[in-house]
Amino acid sequence: MINKANVVIVGGGISGVSIAYNLAKKGMKDIVVIEKKYLASGATGRCGAGVRAQWGTEMNCRIAHESIKFYEKANENLNYERDIDFKQGGYLILATTKKEKEQFEKNLKLQNRLGIPSKMISSEEAKKIVPYLNTEDVVVATYCPIDGHINPFKATDAYALAAEKLGVKIYKYTEVLDIVIEDGEIKKVVTDKGDIETDIIVNAAGGYAKQIAEMVGVDLPVFSERHQILVTEPVEEMLGPMVMSFSKNLYCQQTPEGSFIMGRSGENEPTDMRITSSWDFLDKMAKTITHTLPPISELTVIRQWAGLYNITPDRQPIYGETKDVKGFFLAVGFSGRGFMVAPMTGLLIAEQIMGEENSIDISSLSLERFEKGELVFEPSVV
Amino acid sequence: MDQKTLEEKTIICRCSDVTLKEVRDLIREGYTEPDEIKRILRTGMGPCQGRTCGPLILREVAIMTGRTIDEIVPFTYRPPSKGIKMGAIAKGGELNDK
């Protein structure tokens, strides 16, 4: 292990390797990524693998849209010999109330102004996209064809390999034990494999972001909540888009390899870092999804798993350098969508570290917003 | 049969159609943990959930990296212990509620 670096990134999920890649591409030397287990072993590899541009604030629309544009060309951009399996089958978002419909109308206006090709469709039109969709409680739906599915493991692998080609050192199975600061400045990272002197640390630790920040005395207003998912056996292609509904509390997508991945939010999910599976989730998921997409009744569920949403008070990420500790950058609190915005997370944090102007203004996402009470409201979160 | 043909013709994972050659190539590239191999090749992600390929991959990793099997972390086992139709779960819950 090297003992000196310009930047140490804590966390080998998609955000960490994307930041490393973007920094290296900008010419930064001696970049290290430290990952406790294997790459994408945390929230990235446990996520629902969906990417969407359909958001409700300009900043989120732009971050997500630009990320999708990168992912569209990621195999070429990153010279990836495997395939990140981007299936752009769209997201079909169902509204079940008049209030939800009104919110979607506002969202669409904003999205279309920003060049996102989303549109409002009737339940009859939704049935043309998914013929067996149960539309009895659907008021209206929105559909955006550029949204879809990406393989989170391979996307992380693609970034990691590209970063390594540019000289980034990735230490897997290495745990950060402590961070030493002097006079409010970063000095070194202590790991179970040795110490690394550095001035700059990026906290991209996902579910463990709070614990890493505690090492430098920064109290993050985040908590990690378990979210569960299940997957079925693979079958022939029968579902193009991700079907999702905020009010029905579900999302479901068929992956390119044929299996169905689906999830929902639980009412009393633990926040003690547990990622076990519960019967309650399986039961409620089965009931919800077979009502909305009846043919799924015939599919066999083969696995449940879970991961952590690192959640902030306004369910927006925290980006940027902390005021109290110089050189301590945050890319945390993604509240369930770190994967889909990772290309822009990487670019934006790299720009900040290099002292460049951000290509999208993310100053409203600093840690200080919570002290000032300037929370960012995003209507389209699950 | 020579070694190369043997590697190419031996199926390690029947669910995802993965050969011994693909597994060995990946270990040589540095993906030396069963969980890492699983995430690239889908070994263990199919209907049998690694019941066939799991022990085979453990053995390959052990041989190629010079470790003993007890030093290697195997796949994580998760519910359900056997595949079950979503409809059966949805219905079963309703009956139990009554």
Provide a descriptive summary of the structure in words:
The complex is a heterodimer of chains A (382) and B (98). With 382 residues, chain A is an alpha/beta fold. Chain A has 2 domains: 7-47 and 153-222 and 313-372, FAD/NAD(P)-binding domain (3-Layer(bba) Sandwich); 90-147 and 224-311, D-Amino Acid Oxidase, subunit A, domain 2 (D-Amino Acid Oxidase, Chain A, domain 2, 2-Layer Sandwich). Chain A contains 11 helices and 19 strands. Chain A has helices spanning 14-25, 43-46, 58-72, 74-77, 98-113, 123-129, 152-165, 209-214, 279-292, 342-353, 368-372, and strands at residues 7-10, 31-34, 50-51, 91-95, 119-121, 140-144, 148-149, 169-171, 176-182, 185-191, 194-197, 200-203, 223-232, 242-245, 250-254, 260-264, 300-311, 318-321, 328-332. Chain A has an 8-stranded mixed β-sheet with strand order 5-6-4-14-15-16-13-17, sandwiched between helices. Chain A has a 6-stranded mixed β-sheet with strand order 8-2-1-12-19-18. The radius of gyration of chain A is 20 Å and the shape is globular. In chain B, helix 1 (3-9) crosses helix 2 (20-28). Chain B has 5 helices and 3 strands. Chain B has helices at residues 3-9, 20-28, 34-41, 53-65, 86-97, and strands at residues 11-13, 18-19, 84-85. In chain B, a hairpin with a 4-residue loop joins strand 1 and strand 2. Chain B is globular. Chain B has 98 residues and is mainly α. At the A-B interface, helix 7, helix 9 and strand 17 of A face helix 3, strand 3 and helix 5 of B.
